[in-house]
CCA-adding enzyme (Mariniplasma anaerobium), 382 residues
Amino acid sequence: MSTIKTAKGVLYELKKAGYEAYIVGGAVRDYLLRMPINDVDITTNARPHQVNKIFRTIPTGLKYGTLTVLYKDEKFEVTTYRIDGEYQDDRHPDNVTFSEDVQEDVKRRDFTINGLLLSDKQEIIDFVEGQKDLKAKLIRTIGDPHQRFNEDALRMMRAFYFQSKLGFQIETQTRDAIFELKDNLKNVAMERIVNEMIKIIQGEHAKRAFKSMVTTQVHEVLPGLKKGIEHILTMDDMPFVDSFFALCFTLNDGIVPQEWTFSNKHRHRYQQAAVLARKTKVFDAYYLYTYGIDLCLLANKVNFMLDRSKNLKSEIEETYQNLPIQSELDLKLRATEMIEITGKKAGAWLKDMQHQMVLAVLKKEMKNDKESLIEFLNKNIK
């Protein structure tokens, strides 16, 4: 975390060394909106090697003129004024040219509300009418929206993120450009889309952002999310991240598209919850034993959001607490005893027999005691 107060010290040190420097971007926007600030970025005409002489630094983005400055136990990204070259990958410029003009640096940025500068004297410098858009609660690109989105297609997702966070409206020309260029998102690395989607879902005004996704048809180029987002717009309460993806993939025929770069853990979680929600609305002892309480609760939440079921959270938790058996290790007849009784060698039959016993106990067809289990073993052994 970095603070405006400490950032002013960085500005002071840069100015003392003969350079210009300003706080820029989201920190200035949130400062004016009196919102919490987590990260403070600084822009300066000092070159990276000159910044390096003044502060302890980490070379986090030298190609783009960025260093992470370590100052008074806080971290700040400090970037040299620059003009971006051509963009070939819908994300990063092929090259950058350092500049002495802060106005040129501001013009390359994404939205007017992120193009404001704050000096060490608390002065706001505004070259792009960002304050006007803040007051009007508008998300507008700096300059031509087609150019901004062609430079970096992820900015379209960023527009939805700022809408979700701030509750602002996306300005008409900016929204129209998103509609026209939405297919460019297919060229953006999926992990970046995932990161923005998570922030959108977590925003206080997520429903407004989802509505804009539908208006611009962006939800149609996000694999497997179309039906889910359309359904979520009919809901009063917005889902959390796991519920969002599980619901979307349930409505996507229970399939998690391969394009999504989730961790194996999350991919498995969403896939299993989607399959389970489509399979059952009743989470009895069998399902709780087979899938676990976490997946059963998530699948029930999905069914509840889809109006297929009541919210059975309390009932599911109670059923789980009262399971007569929670694992094969809880069987009162040990594997070694089963081998001794049958005279058979250990093999696949043993695991299969244990599984049959567990299911019989769960279904309350027999008690979990040694006598009942031996009787079941003798009756079912081949």
In short: The radius of gyration is 29 Å. The longest strand covers residues 74-80.
